[in-house]
């Protein structure tokens, strides 16, 4: 399992549109990376215990980590719809050490999501198997759900 703050720093270094990195988008991108890793590697990238709350997969752990790290800053801004949001900024350059399989997963998530506007991004998140299968306010056991998902795919259901 990787250090979550290192995963976040890599995401911020590589993401092509930093002004899109709101708190909600970042949290959901880490969820997508954990989900992809659960499917392909039978483990999460992080040790986050995901909850399916009213706004999809969300935990405060990620934002709390960002607030505690001097390499990040959180600023108030307005979104595309002129509504308040908070964006996260990586201050300066940082060195990140992650294994190759982790960077491949993060690169995949960045590639697939950076081209999506907010609505399409959220549709992608809500189309994932854990969100479809679980009820709101439940913890998402990504490893168990990944196993189920692979079984469903193998059976062609």
What would you note in describing this structure?
The chain has 157 residues and is α+β, with helices and mostly antiparallel strands. The chain contains 7 helices and 5 strands. A 3-stranded antiparallel beta sheet has the order 2-1-5. Strands 3-4 form a two-stranded antiparallel ribbon.
Summarize it.
By secondary structure, this protein is of the alpha+beta class. The chain has helices at 4-14, 23-41, 61-68, 100-113, 118-126, 129-133, 142-155, and strands spanning 50-53, 56-58, 72-78, 84-90, 139-140.
User: Which residues sit in consecutive blocks of at least 5 with pLDDT less than 50?
Assistant: none
Q: Record the strand order, biggest sheet.
A: 2-1-5
Beta-strand portion reads 5-15%
Q: Could you give the count of β-strands?
A: 5
Largest sheet: 3 strands, antiparallel
SS element count, helices: 7
Residue-averaged pLDDT, rounded? Answer: 91
Q: Judging from the principal axes of the Cα atoms, what is the shape?
A: globular
Q: What count of structural domains? A: 1
Distance between the termini: 31 Å
Write the element-wise H/E pattern from the N-terminal end onward: HHEEHEEHHHEH
Radius of gyration: 15 Å
* Share of residues in helices: 40-55%
The SS-based structural class is alpha+beta
Which features does this protein show?
single chain; 157 residues; alpha+beta; 3-stranded antiparallel sheet; two-stranded antiparallel sheet; 51% helix; 15% strand
List the helices and strands and how they pair.
Layout: H1 4-14, H2 23-41, E1 50-53, E2 56-58, H3 61-68, E3 72-78, E4 84-90, H4 100-113, H5 118-126, H6 129-133, E5 139-140, H7 142-155
Helix pairs in contact: 1-4, 2-4, 2-7
């Amino acid at each position: 399992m990787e250090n979550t703050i290192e995963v976040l720093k890599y995401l911020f270094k590589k993401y092509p549109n930093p002004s899109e990195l709101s708190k909600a988008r970042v949290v959901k991108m880490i969820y997508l990376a954990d989900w992809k890793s659960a499917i392909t590697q039978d483990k999460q990238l992080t040790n986050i215990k995901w909850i399916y709350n009213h706004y999809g997969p969300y935990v405060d752990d990620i934002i709390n980590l960002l607030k505690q790290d001097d390499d990040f800053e959180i600023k108030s801004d307005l979104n595309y719809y002129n509504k308040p949001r908070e964006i996260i900024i990586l201050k300066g350059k940082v060195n990140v050490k992650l294994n190759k399989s982790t960077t491949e997963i993060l690169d995949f998530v960045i590639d697939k999501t950076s081209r999506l506007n907010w609505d399409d991004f959220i549709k992608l998140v809500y189309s994932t198997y854990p969100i479809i299968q679980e009820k709101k306010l439940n913890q998402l056991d990504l490893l168990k759900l990944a196993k189920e998902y692979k079984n469903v795919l193998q059976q062609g259901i």
